[in-house]
From TrEMBL:
One of its GO terms (molecular function) is unfolded protein binding. Residues 24-58 form a coiled coil. Pfam families: Prefoldin (PF02996). Signal peptide: none annotated. Keywords: Coiled coil. It comes from Dimorphilus gyrociliatus. The lineage of its organism: Eukaryota, Metazoa, Spiralia, Lophotrochozoa, Annelida. GO terms for cellular component: cytoplasm; prefoldin complex. The keyword Cytoplasm does not apply. Gene3D superfamilies: 1.10.287.370. The keyword Coiled coil applies. InterPro entries: PFD_alpha_archaea, Prefoldin, Prefoldin_subunit_alpha. This is DgyrCDS3775.
């Protein structure tokens, strides 16, 4: 069964092969979109989780300690920890704010909780779309076999 735009339910077995193929293509696009979204959210989650870990490690360090500071993902420069009580946190889109270590931890934990919930929501929808795609694929294969049988019978 497929749901039409007006809210009515349509039995996909009643559709022709082109219509089923169109639905299958739409489902493929939706699955790709949700998969891509999950990958991006998981990357953001990993980045925030790494930031939280770094903030937690900073609590054990002392001012004046030497460290390597990443300039890019492949280039580092020597640095020195000036303050272990405050950090500068990126809020997003180029906005930065100074926060105490406990405030930064709360900020990252709140963001991580939000991302985790969003990933779970998208995973549920993605799994529903995968199930719909499997059902539609089976119907498409059945229709294709029927079509090929009809074509072979017409040639005989």
């Amino acid at each position: 069964m497929a749901s039409a735009g007006s809210g009515e339910v349509i039995d996909i077995n009643m559709l022709n092969i082109q219509q089923v193929e169109s639905i299958l293509q739409s489902l493929n696009n939706e699955v790709d979109f949700f998969t891509s979204s999950m990958v991006k959210l998981k990357e953001a989650y990993d980045k925030l989780n790494s930031s939280l870990g770094n903030v937690e490690r900073l609590k054990t360090m002392k001012g004046g300690m030497e460290m390597l500071v990443p300039v890019t993902s492949a280039m580092y420069v020597d640095g020195e920890i000036a303050d272990t009580k405050k950090v500068i946190v990126e809020l997003g889109t180029g906005y930065f704010v100074e926060k105490s270590i406990p405030e930064a931890e709360k900020f990252f934990k709140r963001k991580l909780d939000f991302l985790k919930k969003e990933i779970e929501k998208i995973d549920v929808v993605r799994n529903q779309k995968l199930e719909q795609k499997q059902i539609t694929t089976n119907v498409f294969k059945k229709k294709l076999i029927e079509h090929q049988s009809q074509m072979a019978a017409a040639k005989s």
